[in-house]
Structure formats: C-alpha cells, structure tokens
Fold this protein.
Amino acid sequence: MLFDEEQLKEIGILAATKSHRDIAKHFNISLGKFNTIMKNQPEVRNVIKEGRKHSVKNGIQGENAPDKTIVLTDDQIAKVGVLAECLNLKQIADYLGIAELTFINIRKRQSEVDEAYKRGRAMAIGDIGGNLVMKAKGGDTSSQIFYLKTQAGWKDCSNEVNNKPEETKPITIINKLYKSED
C-alpha cells in the first residue's frame, strides 16, 4: 500500500496534531504497517515533517497538539499515579495517546506529573517489597534468597551452580626414607 496525493495532504494536516499511531488509526492500518510505508515512501516522512513544522510555527494547541503545548489535567495526573504502579513510561504514554518522548517532556514541564509518576512507582515497590519481606520472614526460602541477592549483594559462588567443573590441583607426594643411626 502506498498513499496517493490526497492521502499525503491529509497526513500533513493530521501530523500537525496527531501522533504516528493516531495517523495509522485514521487510515485503519497498524503502526507497524504505517512505519513500513514511511520507509518505502519517503514523501510520507516529508509531509509529516512539514506538518509538524507548521504546527509549531503557528502555535497549534489542543488535546493532541505537539508536546510543547500539552498540559495534563488533574484527572490525568491522578491516572498517571495509578498507572505508574504497573506500567512503564511508554505504556503510560500509549494509554494517554501521546508519544513516549512527549510524556517525558511533560514530566519535565509539569512537576506534579513527575511527582505522581514517582509516587505511584514508589507505592508499588513498597507494597511488593513489603510482601516479599513478609514472605521471607515467614520462612519462604525463595523469597529469602531473592531478597538477600537484591538487597544484600549475595550471589551464587559455588562451582556447581555455575556449571563449572571443580578444579583439582596435582598433589606431589614425596617419599623420604630415613635411616636411623643405631
């Protein structure tokens, strides 16, 4: 599939406010297929580039505007905190319908977004870590080993664990004859 002239114009317009993912959805194709088309049809990359330049130059704003103008609402910020417990940056950006780099830039610009993200991650780590410690204290050997490896620097050192044959050194036996002087 290649885009015709009308579709290329449409892509240029969409590029001013939409991500690659959103443009692909608009044409009912996957993001992977859209990326393949961009590789095979350089005109697509060019119209997207021009569309992005136009949007920044003219200060286009709105829900899907380039990352310099996106400001998350209080509800979205709260959602970031909840999502941070189980999703990584890219997954949260996908959930919000923006690029990962856009989300990173928003975190830099909006300190409350960064704080919500960090707080959500810390809460999850605290909960899981607390459960791990409880299991370790309760006698769960796997939990104890995992905890000591990650928190106390323990590591497997035995040759058997590393599947290395045990090295043996040759032993020299010296046989000394003693004569007694009688």
Remarks:
- The chain has two domains: 5-57, 74-151.
